[in-house]
Amino acid sequence: MEKLTFEFFGGAPVNATCAPALVGVVGSGNLEVLIEPAALDGACAIEILTAARGFGETWRAVLDDFFARHKLADVRISINDVGATPAVVALRLDQAVEDFLGGEK
Amino acid sequence: MRHAMKGSLMRDWNTQARNRQARLARAAALAKGKVVAAADAGALLETVLEPGDRVCLEGNNQKQADFLARVLAELDPEKIHDLHMVQSVLALPEHIDVFERGIASRLDFSFSGPQAGRLAKLVSANQIGIGAIHTYLELFGRYFVDLTPRVSLVCAQAADRAGNLYTGPNTEDTPIIVEATAFKSGVVIAQVNEIVDALPRVDIPGDWVDFVIQSPKPHYIEPLFTRDPAQISEIQVLMAMMAIKGIYAEYEVDSLNHGIGFDTAAIELILPTFAESLGLKGKICRHWALNPHPALIPAIEAGFVESVHSFGSELGMENYIRARSDIFFTGPDGSMRSNRAMCQAAGHYACDMFIGSTLQIDLAGNSSTATLGRIAGFGGAPNMGSDARGRRHASPAWLKAGREARQGRNLIPRGQKLVVQMVETFREHMQPAFVERLDAWELAESAHMDLPPVMIYGEDVSHILTEEGIANLLLCRTDEEREQAIRGVAGYTPVGLGRDKRMVENLRDRGVIRRPEDLGIDKRHATRDLLAARSVKDLVRASGGLYDPPKRFRNW
Amino acid sequence: MTSYYEASARERLHALLDKDSFREFLPPTERVVSPHLVQLDTPAAFDDGVIVGRATLDGRPVLVAAQEGGFMGGAVGEVHGAKLVGLLERARDEKPAAVLLLVESGGVRLHEANAGLIGVSEIMRAVLALRSEGVPVLVLDGGQFGCFGGMGIVARLCDAIVMSEEGRLGLSGPEVIETTCGVEEFDSRDRALVWRTVGGKHRYLLGEADALVADDIAAFREAAIGLLDTTPDLSLAALAAEHERLGARLQKFGALRDALDIWSALGVAKPEKLPLLEADAFNAVVAGKRA
């Protein structure tokens, strides 16, 4: 397993009433994404535990684009990953944010 | 002059016919009319064949003359050797055994999927001389030029005592093989599942067939074209939505071929839902050159499909096809007749679009399924996935693609076929689908090929579709634009990350690259709920119980 | 129609229970994860593959658990087992109308060895203790991974089981039977045979499942509501009657080789047609014929 952490700044604070959200399943080619509010001095902290080692740069690129889509502050995102492709990772992240911010199901 | 004429009058111009008579005479004692007992099959082949013969063995994409293959592979190489095998597909172990045993030494073929590894080993061990690897239609063409079989070993569902053959739904390559052989003084031997008094219909006239053998077991047919909807992913649904909205609708794709895969199965399964919701029924996907994919059942039932002509059949679909004779090509007996050669021609000349998947794409859009250690060949995809320069009849799709390709260039106008390569940016085990250099180059070197085996040339590719978007290569005007357009949809692969960001943005502004949002597609709708059938059982339900899936796909 | 089979454990709970009524115990944010998997350098899940909590069903209070088959086949590890046991023990205090177990599990999580075994045996004990205090425990079984191993035993210790035809219920998995007894005895790749032997329809006909429903979360919900008033009976009389019923069943069917033979013996005219029937049609055909 490899542990990766990323931090992003410059996001906008979320509504305090946002409840934590979990999407995805920890199965082969898949991942679970837990997103919750956290007092982080405005940071968006993303922590990943992944079974696929050596893809740090790929994660960075995917998360850079994710943060460009959803500039959130004071949010912690925790991920358990079993070798999901960037397409699936981006999909789950977007789904998690949508649930978190209270979008339509 | 007189001397030369005398020489030509002296020449024996009918050697082949005489040789054929000699072979038949040698074998006469083994046959009752045209019927030969299975136990005498080996003796028949030994008397009919001569060393060095060019032999066609029906290894089709799906059906296999498996009994004759086994008998051939068990012949005595002292008596029968150095055969030159010409066949579409090397599917069975026996197809390689004949080379290992020294019965055959030369090969011309098209596809070798299941035996690709063993074939590669034979090549590196110098136990085989490969003439060339072809596409199906190309190989069929050469049966009439310089690869005419002397003896053909074919398979059919049934024969009568006069040698007439019923090949039924899985007619596949048989007519073309038999015609080439029979009309060049060759010998045709058919293994059949049964010998009957009255055939449902005659697919191959008895005049063209010399010997008929009832095999101990029915010949093998592989269900290659069944895809379980349960395995289709959300990403594949998203790509299917993009294909329909971004290409099928844009170009009004009326006639088409789908390369087999889960990606295209997803497209077939969202026609009745997504395409219907866009008002596209009756406007796209009416005519198909396609095997009878079970995944197409919901689209047929929903009224999208008007006709399907097939290369071969698909196990379990027989009753459905029989009940839907308006759609499929069926005989007066009610069963389907497929024909690989004609369907290949249809897919090449009479279709607006080909769409299929691949393993690797390079920066010029060339794609290949070649991998090291395997010599798999081409099959029929290159005929579907190439521009048909001989085409002349117009359709909206063909004209529009041609216009886009020639926009702003001082060229005489013509149409162009849509050739779409559809692929997820990463394959299993995080292998990138986009590469700087195809593995095909290395394979060519190690297997001593003249050229790297490319399945579809970038010059023919009109669009590349990934989960990141659609790159319209028709609109690219330079090699550099083409490269950046490809990088622009290559996502987070090293090729994708190596993009020139500004150029890619510019290409997007120009509509050369279109992302899902540009197509008005909401990714939240890309779920399996959009599939008209989500399981094999759903397909059975959609067919009203007519589809009878093979055992391996059923849990009932 | 929302497929129970296709849905994740969380999606099943969301659609099965009364809207917005579900409150999760030990939610993923608590990160109560398996201490064993991290030692094995294997991915863990924030909820260790099981969701437990409180909700209402048709307005009545229930405690619920749903196993996520997609995580390690729903197998029970130490934490997973403790969550289930804790839920069952809590039910003894809260006395809900019922405890619902949405089971999808291969049984004990072998990675966790004895901790998993102990977990499953504690679940069994907790189920019986709860039922003896009058709270029914209902099992829903319709997921891809079926209900096998120790969880198969747990299921049969409960008051009732609702299955769809996609669901499976058994002890040893099909592959294990084939490896141990040979392919002649049981060909695990013959999927029709597997479903005939451990699938929902056969379990219903044998009397092990109490309802056979369509693969639709609404149908599972309706069946569960109908079972809310089940009264657990662990009396000696009830046990004796069950033993007698099982003995009679063995007498009648013990020598038969295939489920089709059993269905025939139960009086089904065309047993080979049963696997093709939709739930409603199936139930109509087999009405009054269960063992």
The low-confidence runs of chain C, each spanning 5 or more residues with pLDDT under 50, are none
What would the principal axes of the Cα set say about the shape of chain B? Answer: globular
- As a percent range, the share of helical residues of chain C equals 40-55%
Q: Could you tell me how far the N terminus lies from the C terminus of chain B, measured between alpha carbons in angstroms?
A: 79 Å
How many E strands of chain C?
Answer: 7
Biggest beta-sheet profile of chain C: 7 strands, mixed
Distance between the termini of chain C: 30 Å
Strand order of the largest sheet of chain C: 1-2-3-4-5-6-7
Coarse structural class of chain B: alpha/beta
Major beta sheet of chain B, specifics? 10 strands, mixed
Coarse shape of chain C: globular
Portion of residues in beta strands of chain C equals 5-15%
Total DSSP helices of chain C: 12
Radius of gyration of chain B from CA coordinates: 25 Å
Oligomerization status of the protein chains: heterotrimer
Mean pLDDT of chain B equals 96
Number of helices of chain B: 20
Largest protein-protein interface: A-C, 17 and 18 residues
- Please tell me the CATH architecture of one domain in chain C by its name: Alpha-Beta Complex
List keywords for this structure.
heterotrimer; A: 105 residues; alpha/beta; five-stranded mixed β-sheet; two-stranded parallel sheet; 2 helices; C: alpha/beta; 2-enoyl-CoA Hydratase, Chain A, domain 1; seven-stranded mixed β-sheet; 7 strands
